[in-house]
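Re-running the complex after MR caught last week's input typo. The corrected sequence lines follow. Everything else is unchanged.
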Amino acid sequence: MQLNKLIIETRLRTAWSSIDLGFVLARLFWVRGFCLYIVVAAPIFALTRLLSDVDSVLPFFVLWWCKPLFERPILFFMSRELFSQKTDFFQTIAHFKSWLWPGLVWILTLRRISIFRSMSAPITLLERPQSNAYSERASVLGSKFSSESMWLTIVLFFIEGIFTLSLLALFAILFPQNIDVALAWFNNLSQNSVYVDAASIIVMAAVAPFYTAAGFMLYISRRVELEGWDIEICFRDWMTTFKNQPSSNDGGHDV
Amino acid sequence: MKIDTVALIETPEGTDLHADLAGLLPRTLAYIIDFLIRVGIIIVVWVISLLLGGLGTGIFLIAYFILEWWYPVLFEVYRDGQTWGKKAYKIKVVNDDLTPVGFGPSLIRNLLRSADFFPLFYAVGILSVVFTARFQRLGDLAAGTIVIYSEPDSYDSSALDQVEAVAPAQLINEDQQLAFVNFALNRGKMSKDRQEEIAEIIRPRLPLNVDKASDYVRGVGKWLLGAR
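Corrected-run output:
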């Protein structure tokens, strides 16, 4: 780990400020994150359509349940970009073995139901601890920021709902028929679940980079604090400038 | 330039002012608190107005108008940029040069809530906060205001009780001072080994008679915090 390659300013942050930083990161990498999410979610979407010939909420539930899987390529490329390691869309796809398999069963079962999952996802993907070491690691990292990571999940959950409804409304209004069609269509959402699911996937993909990056930055902020990254970076920079200009005074040993 | 969430203002005097910008999450939650407070008040006023009959309806409508349009403005102007919700999340509204927000900008940013609300549940406002560089909704952009964190993080100095303050023998810049202080406070509760490892990095700059680098760095940190 080369801390001097970090693309973010490392300083001690509050949990809210870490989430804000995650949002800035997500804004920078939003297009790539959105596309990767769609690419991973599309096959599952198609699968849910094949499996269920009746309209029900089951396909939606399956998609919703698989969210941690769809978020993984985003987390993967962001974790590399964070250390200035350029990883574009195709490189991320090519590295699928690095983000698809590790802990896959865990994130789709027990760890799926955690409301703090954005913050613990990097532990599963990047640290890959044994299952007994995981819970200790998650509590060490998550203990301090747990309330904020919970609110992150709750607020973004509702924002997804708001935007899904907005997107459906927009879709319905833009239809060439009159408003009655749109209203009737809204009253029969359960018969139109394929559209609802498609709209949901698009909105999930739009929100996911923010959720993933914010959780990742919560995780990184805790590591900065626990391991003193901010201090180490400052001291190393200092020594680099010191070595570059050794003649500025007598040569040192005098803080 | 590293990625950060800071609003940096260069003044003509040559000093830099900076503040941490507050983003979507704390702002949304602060709004929800304010919303619940307003709903609570309006329910009380409504009950009273029922008892007063015709006059009561008038009072209710006036109270509703004031709460809807003036609650945030009055708080922002007379309570240092903070409504109760913002106070709960330690954020406040300021002009984008970090001066306290005045009546005009506050009125503009709050009247434009209706634009941010469009088409429903602040969808436009959310997009605007998320995608503008300084987390501004449309009202903020029009009024030239930003929302920042109002207080620096408080710290616990109990880790320093046993430490002896040491005066540094040479000038060190602001970033380095911060690193010394953070090292001394040890907020992350780093292990002894890790502390030693980090302190050893600057060994070439330490006085020759220093035995344990971590003790020395911690002492300087305490000195910088004001201990002598």
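None of the earlier attempt is carried over here. Chain B has two domains: 6-149, 158-224. Chain B touches chain A through 51 residues (CB under 8 Å).
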